[in-house]
Structures are given as structure tokens and as C-alpha cells.
Amino acid sequence: MATWALLASACGDAADTPAPEAATAPAEVAEGVAAAENDEAQQEPEESMMVEAPEIREAEVAMGFNACCADTAFWNIPLELEWWDDLNITIVPSTPTYHFISGAEAIAWLRSGEGNVALGWVPGLFGTLETFAQETPPILLADIYVGYAVLVAPDSPSKTVMELVNEGMDFPDAAQAAVQQLVGADIYISPGSLEQTQYLDAFFAYLDEWWEPYQQEIPALDEEGDPLVLLGRDGEPLLDEDGNVQPIRITTNDWRNYANPQYVHDSTIVEFSAVPGRIEYAVPYSAPVLVQMMRNGWDPLINFGMMIENDPFSQQTAIANSTVGGIGLLANREWVDSNKDLAYRVLSAAFRTFEFLDDPQTRYQGWEIEADLINSHRRLSLEPEEIGTIWEQIDPSFSWEDQEALWDLDLPSYHPEIVFATQIERLKVKGVLAGDYDTQAGLEEFLLAQDLYYEMKEFKTRADALFESASGMDLSTGQADLIARAQHHYDIYNFYDALRFLEAALSG
Fold it and tell me: Within 13 Å, how many C-alpha atoms sit on residue 420's CB side?
């Protein structure tokens, strides 16, 4: 969590109900509480008092994820630990994981209606916002990937940025010298990077020539649509020689104008990297390959972490900050609209998993589950601790507690609205999207994850109030049982059903 923050400064319930339950309206909850309190004030409870429990319908959810990476393979944790039983959900297909060759295949699966939810790279959809992206919006932003790096071979004479810094150079000069070594060089990189070509731009922007041939500047915008300006370490705007503020600019330049991409899959990069002298520079697409190559002696020539820590207020780091993105849980919008109850339960499983991976008492078990899955499908040899390194340093996740900071622009955090707006503006300049495309309106519709988070937060707030009311009551055995069930669902982030059980308990 600390890394991404720097970017901006035991009960299952079965039922046969075929249709989704409607979310409890706030007014109905309040009326239920008032009625329950009036009843309790007028009579003593009877142990024989019958309270009807709400049903959690039995349902299948067609879920897709790829065993390529820690931030996609984490869905195997709730499967392995049988957490879906708590939610009365069966994940289909019935195999441990549904494999997608590419993000495009996952999107097609969702669009066809065959799939309900699938993990995918969120910014990869921006170029299709005018066509089909709104059919498969994210219902959760799971993490942010800050592990972008150019790795250099152990036998290469090239010097890394940090080696040059240790020799006495300032970081910007060291970054420029390090990147200069890449000009004209072959860089082995996954074809998957074509969905996110711009992240290497942040590195090559250290070249003097980078800023000469650009066609049009794209300002990075704040939440009000005003250009952001570079800030010094004291938080005040940095001024140029004439005393003017310096806007953060992102150009239409492209790193492929300076180096030669050699597109091969990560498995081939790993194979080539094991042969001394075979390749010199590589940009792994996935964090597991990145950490395994680093274990084998490949060092980061330059990466985002170095820039964020050592050069946080530069144009280059501004580009990095406006480039980043992460994996999200994408969904068929029609399915969500018809199955809000299932969407809430699926999201609760995600937040429960992130808590499991954060807890020192349980996280190693989670790392083991992920390492076993990734190794078996990718012919890697990751240790569980390396999965931990990925989550802590390369792919920080957004837990339930982190989610509000994503959407509240008054809280210091990585803010998708700002970052994504800049990326969409870039696509408009490049002609991928129409120049008059309404970025703000498009994002508001696309970021379904924000709406669902605040709906779940409302359920949690209402549940908190009902728990407090219940604490001052004399409860029947039936009521106490329902409240215990509510507590279980609350503890696993299923605030939707926690609220339903509480309402039933206090209005019975």
C-alpha cells in the first residue's frame, strides 16, 4: 500500500430462490429498526419466538481468470479454501481456473454473455470506450502495477541507474545515461505490452531528444480538469527560469522511435535469459517472471519504483503516474444489472482474499496457493515469499480499507479518475478515440466499481447501526441466531447479506 500511495504524494445459507434479492432500501431499514425498538420496549421476548431467516439463493457464476500473475491468480484462494460455499455460489467452469490466451478473449467471453466476470487489464479497454467497453466495465479495481522495469542481463557491461548514482551522479543524470544505453538496442518484450505501450515512455523521456519531435502536448489534468503543475519537495509549484509554473506534459512520442522491440512471450524471455549472451535487455510482462529473473541475476536498469522514490516531481515521473493501471474484475453489465446480489457477494470474496493476503497469520498460505498455481501453469519456480514480494512491492492491492481513497479525491492516493482521464485524452490525440469524445461522462459510466463500492459501504453503515441497536436489546434465541449469521457475513465483507439478516432479526 505504501508504494501506490507515493504515486499521489462460519455460516453458509442454502436456498432455492431463483431471482436476486432486492437491496434493502435505507428507509425500509430505518423503519425496521424503529419497529423493532418499539416492540422491544413493549414486551419481553419469548424464547419460542419464531424469526424467519432470509434466503441466500444458490447460484452459479461464470468466472474467468488466468494463472499468469499474482494479481489474477489470487482467485484460486477462495476456490481452494471453499469460501464460495459461504455465499452459496458455485464457480463455473468447474475446473480450478478458466484460462484466457489474451485479454481480448476474456472480453469476448464476457460480451457473449457466456461469462459473467473475468479479471483483466482495465486501461486496455479505453480504446474501445466508443464501441463495446461499456458492456464490460470493471466492478472492482484490484491493484496497481508499479513494477514496470527494463532488466539488464548479468553479463552486460551496461550500468543501471542506481550503479551510476552510487558512482556520484544525480538521479536525473544517471537515468538519462542509463536509458541512453537502450537507444538502438533490441528490447525483448511480451506482445501483451501492446495493450500498454506507453509505460516505457516514462523511461525514454529522460532522453533530451524525447521532447524535440513531439506533435502535441497532452496536459495531465486534476479532478477539476485544470492542468497539473510540477511540485517541489516542499509541495510548492516549481518555477522555470522566467518564474512560470511548469505544467505536467505527456507527449505523443513513443519509445519505439528509439529502441527496437522484439516481441516474444514471457516464457521465451525466461528461456532466452537463461542462455548467457543471448539477450541483453528484457521487459517481462508479468510480475512472476520479473521476480524470477531478478533472482537469477538480472537487475533493473531502471524502474518506476526508482523514479517514484528518487525523482518524484519530474516530468518523467509525472508520465509514469499518468500511465499506471492495474487489474480489475470486469463484468458483463447486463449480468450485474440483473444480479446485483451476486455482484456484491463476488466482491466480498475479493475483499476477504485481500485481507487474507495482508494478514501475517494467513498470508503465507495464500502465497503458497498462488505460487503452486502459477508454477504449474507457467513452468516457473517461484517461492511463496516471491509472491509476497509481488504483492508488497510490484502489485499492491486495494483492500476494502483502501477503496475509499481511490474514489475520494480529498484523500491522498492513486486516483483512477485522474489517471484514466489523462490516458483517454492521449488516445483522443492519437486518433484512437474521437476528439470530441466526452471523457468525463465516459469514465463516470465505465467506472461501475465506484458505484458498487459506495453501495456496499452504505450496506456496511446500515449494518453498523443495526448491530448497535441489537446490542441494547433482549433477544430471543431466533434473533440471536440471525445476528450471529449477520456477524459472520459482515466479517467476510458480505455487507449486503449481513444487513438482510440484521433486518430480519430486528423486525421479527
Answer: 28
